[in-house]
Specification:
single chain; about 425 residues; alpha+beta; transferase; Aminotrans_IV_CS; Branched-chain-amino-acid aminotransferase
Length: about 425
């Protein structure tokens, strides 16, 4: 049962007491202990057309702390505001920070909905296992708390098509020491931000600069987690790509030749912060849908998994992608893809579509890739750059997100 307190002041909560009287028995994350402190004066909601991604925040946030003695504190939904942390906190020094990205939508029935939120909870929980220092939390409990936060700020969810409420759950290490070691204390917080379409002026194809002299992730590294440290090194290469006239980076990773011969190959990993897909013509007139495998350097994206599942469902006859003939088979493959292979397929005219997928854009079509001093150009079937498969996936996912189409249990109500 949540404890509701009105007339709250906008301030940070720094206490770490949880009422657990048993020594050596840290408290678990518990939605029944939720405390809700509402803001005195709700902020005005800006017009949807003025929204810039991540700039506008809602009235409230969810905050809960962890330490190894007391465990998780009582969760609190409180007015949005600064966090109070020690300047020597490990998150500010050594970057033990992990986050998730998900969205809430308003369906035709007026209910707030989430898209496959259990996938985000699984990824976030895997960080606790990865660090081995933060007590595991019940994923269903955290999801319940996020739903409560969304309902508190439901008025912030845009109803205009293409708009949504972005959700950013984050865990930061808060051990207050400059010693180079793991953090055994943490703060988990969730903030919300109304957002518009990824392409503000309408969907259009993007250009990529293939880069191999810097890497986003590497074997044995942290590329499979949404850690803050994975993103900062990409800022300068992105600025360089933009100065050369490209929208984003096609991240390459040098690896041994796939065929076992001496030499190196450049393996495709991700597009900016998105997963990569290519659609290839088959000799039997059907299509192959190829994406790099989850080898530890690739983020296990929710949209990636959904794209593969919907393509498989189309081929098996369980669902039909909008605009795609039901007789057309789409064979999915999770396999390494190198630049030399991509170049060969391109020269043979076999690449039908090249696109990135992610929570923000859903589908981002690609029309050219800067590579070896030139450009690989991809023919566009439409002005917005979407091909047959990309458009079918985009339309079906957006329909599921808002509850217009039911597919398995992908659309989850917050009500």
């Amino acid at each position: 049962m949540a404890i509701l307190t009105s007339n709250a002041t906008n301030g940070a909560h720094s206490g770490h007491t949880n009422g657990n009287s048993k020594p050596n028995s840290p408290a678990e994350l518990d939605a029944e202990k939720l405390i809700i402190n509402l803001v005195d004066k709700p902020k005005p909601i800006p017009a949807p057309e003025t929204l810039v991604f991540g700039e506008t925040k809602t009235d409230h946030m969810l905050v809960v702390h962890f330490d190894p003695v007391n465990g998780w504190t009582a969760p609190e939904i409180k007015p949005y505001g600064p966090l109070s942390i020690d300047p020597s906190s490990s998150c500010l020094q050594y970057c033990p920070n992990v986050f998730e990205g998900m969205k809430a939508y308003i369906g035709l029935d007026g209910e707030a909905r989430l898209f496959r939120p259990e996938k985000n909870m699984q990824r976030l929980a895997s960080y606790s296992k990865w660090t081995r220092t933060i007590q595991k939390f019940d994923q269903d409990v955290l999801l319940t708390l996020i739903k409560r936060l969304i309902l508190v700020d439901k008025r912030w969810i845009p109803t205009k098509p293409g708009y949504s409420l972005y959700i950013r759950p984050t865990i930061i290490g808060t051990r207050s020491s400059l010693g180079v070691r793991h953090s055994d204390t943490a703060t988990l917080f969730v903030i919300l931000s109304p957002t518009g379409p990824y392409f503000k002026n309408g969907l259009h194809p993007i250009s990529l600069l293939a880069v191999s002299n810097t890497v986003r992730a590497w074997p044995g590294g942290t590329g499979s987690h949404k850690l803050g440290l994975n993103y900062a090194p990409a800022f300068m290469p992105q600025i360089d790509a933009a100065s050369k006239g490209y929208d984003q980076i096609l991240w390459l990773l040098e690896t041994d030749c796939q065929n076992g011969e001496n030499g190196k190959e450049l393996r495709i990993t991700e597009v900016g912060a998105m997963n990569v897909f290519i659609v290839v013509k088959r000799d039997d007139t059907h299509l192959d849908l190829i994406t790099p495998p989850l080898d530890g350097t690739i983020l296990p994206g929710v949209t990636r998994a959904s794209t593969l599942a919907l393509a498989d469902a189309h081929t098996s006859g369980n669902v039909t992608l909008p605009g795609v003939p039901s007789a057309l088979k789409i064979y999915t493959h999770e396999q390494p893809l190198t630049m030399s292979q991509l170049s060969s397929l391109h020269s043979e005219g076999k690449i039908v579509e090249f696109f990135g997928v992610g929570t923000a854009a859903i589908i981002a079509p690609v029309d050219r890739i800067g590579w070896n001093g030139g450009d690989l150009l991809f023919t566009q079937e439409s002005k917005d750059g979407l091909g047959l498969i990309g458009r079918g996936v985009f339309e079906l996912i957006t329909s599921i997100q808002t509850g217009r189409t039911k597919f398995e249990d992908w659309s989850v109500s917050c009500e």
